[in-house]
Amino acid sequence: MSIESTGGGPVNAEPVGADIDAPAQVPSNPQKGMFGITGTGDVSGFGGLVRRQPDVVGSPKPYGSYFDEVTDALQEAYPGFADAIEKVVVDRGELTLHIKAERITEVAQIMRDDEALRFELCSSVSGVDYLNSDARRLHIVYHLTSMTYRRRVRLEVAVPVDTPVPSVTSVYPTADWQERETYDMFGVIFTGHPNLTRILMPDDWEGHPQRKDYPLGGVPVEYKGAEIPPPDQRRVYQ
Amino acid sequence: MTSSGYATERETTEGRVFTVTGGDWDTITNNIDPLSNEKIVVNMGPQHPSTHGVLRLVLELEGETVTDCRPVVGYLHTGIEKNLEYRNWTQGTTFVTRADYLAPLFNEAGYCLAVEKLLGITDQITERANTIRVLFMELNRISSHLVWLATAGMEIGAISMMLYGFREREYILDIFEETSGLRMNHAYFRPGGVAQDIPDSAIKKIRDFLVYMPKKLKEYEDLLSGQIIWQQRTQGVAVLDVTGCLALGVTGPVLRSAGLAWDMRKTLPYCGYENYEFDVPTANTADVWGRYQVRMAEMRESLKIIEQAVDRLKPGPIFVADKKIAWPAQLAIGVDGLGNSLEHVAKIMGQSMESLIHHFKLVTEGFRVPPGQVYVGIEHPRGELGVHAVSDGGTHPYRVHMRDPSFVNLQSISAMAEGALLADVIAGGASLDPVMGGCDR
Known about the structure:
The complex is a heterodimer of chains A (238) and B (441). Chain A has 4 helices and 9 strands; from the N terminus they run H-H-E-E-H-E-E-E-E-H-E-E-E. With 238 residues, chain A is α/β, with parallel strands linked by helices. Chain A has a domain of 145 residues: NADH:ubiquinone oxidoreductase Nqo5 subunit (Beta Polymerase, domain 2). In chain A, the strands form 3 sheets. Chain A has a 5-stranded mixed beta sheet. Chain A has a two-stranded parallel sheet with strand order 6-7. Chain A is globular. Chain B is of the alpha+beta class. Chain B is 46% helix and 16% strand. Chain B is built from 18 helices and 13 strands. In chain B, the strands form 5 sheets. Chain B has a 3-stranded antiparallel beta sheet, with no helix packed on it. A 3-stranded antiparallel beta sheet of chain B has the order 4-5-6. In chain B, strand 12 and strand 13 form a beta hairpin. In chain B, helix 5 packs antiparallel against helix 6, helix 5 runs antiparallel to helix 17 and helix 6 packs antiparallel against helix 7. The interface between A and B is large, with 56 and 52 residues.
């Protein structure tokens, strides 16, 4: 199956902001045309429509809400702050800290232990594949919860394929299965993980299904004489 | 291969392997030489009536003591998160509802709240829609806890509890069916509101249920709490304290049974939970008994919330006013199930071309969601259900991850089981209330 023919996933396009210094903040979505038609079939003229993506960079200070307190406390407690934190983003009332991959365990340790931070619970670890928008296409997203202060923060790490990321299981043992799931689905290798094996897919499975260049698969279905194509090959209106 | 009673045995390079299909442990223990075979490995599941679904546990036993417990999951993985990426945002509810099949409305609620946060319409959700959501989530919490009580009872040996638990759950499923047309997998909550207004007949059923259920809860406690076997199978079994819970990410009733009153309906409220009066039950025993007491008390608190929500239901819209997001079709339950109402079909097919275009655009294409990412956590019957949704600005989700409490909580089964007796693995596993549909997604 060629990637161009897929409906829901992104199509091949020029990488947006594909430099090693800036992890992508939003997925690449070239959004060309309408009605899912290209070429001569398009008589509407909408095929030439191109939507512009918002060009978002890090948020400026002050961030508002409790976000200033969190970043200031982290800066105070962590001497490597300027080096480790690539970008701070505040969007939709949520704080995201983009962290350099090799520093994630240190940052997590301080986020958990510092008295002014106290993010005791690692709620979620998962991945997002920002294919085509960034050379470091695999993002690992950690959602931390502070039960003491009733706050949430998101740590985000971006790496290219095949670059390992230190495991946070030594700080948050709960990340064990969640990192295994991220490995299983995205192929992110967590160094220092006690048992990095597949968890949801069979052990002998090939490929990492949640990557954007992994096809959904499926077979056409016949219904009352008509053939319905599989979901990733149906016409998509966008 | 030889057969002795229920267990067949064969010699392998790793020692003697027994295949047990039921029956008596004596047939195995008699065949094992106690001096040379001290350790046996038992593979429990994935098809085992006491593992709460297709969960597989690889247990290493010394006598009846578990020395090592390794849970194996993934047997019910259906690729819900991947499938979502090929459908529009509204169709997503139909998928997420199938993850944790005992708490479908929570999956929908978490997903819808995330989409609404991405759209920036959280505060435009009408009061009636929020009240209906709270009402239905609490009914769902009771039905989920009832299945827990029923199956945990069965697994520990109180088989009659299973019959009563499932019987009362039918009451709740009837209310869901009356409103959404479906007993399970409702796809009833939609981004922007709920699919269908709640009919008066369902309100009447809920009021009847509020009278009926407290008596039944009393009956369950009369049946179980004083039972010496129930007490001995649950008290002091599968202990996990607050530190252990937080390290392993365990939330929900298991965390509250260890004494930490962490309930996101109180601590990080959503859907207007801050306007309801209820308590967060806790226990301090941190064992199966404590979890039983917490869940029983939670059902009573849910009844309190349901009563307040029913009283609070005022007539009004059930969807956001924004016509670019609100579902255009009025749904109605016909003889063949839920579908577009006849008035709506007559309007778009016979009267208004613009309505037809609008309907077509919104139903086939869906609405666009501005690019970005959000995380929403809600208090699921089993703990924190987190939904991380990423949009690329299009009409399809770019990525949706569900942090399911069953998945995270199951990690603690090794901590509970190792060093305990084999029978306590069952009680401890049951007390976590894992639902494999949610765990494996």
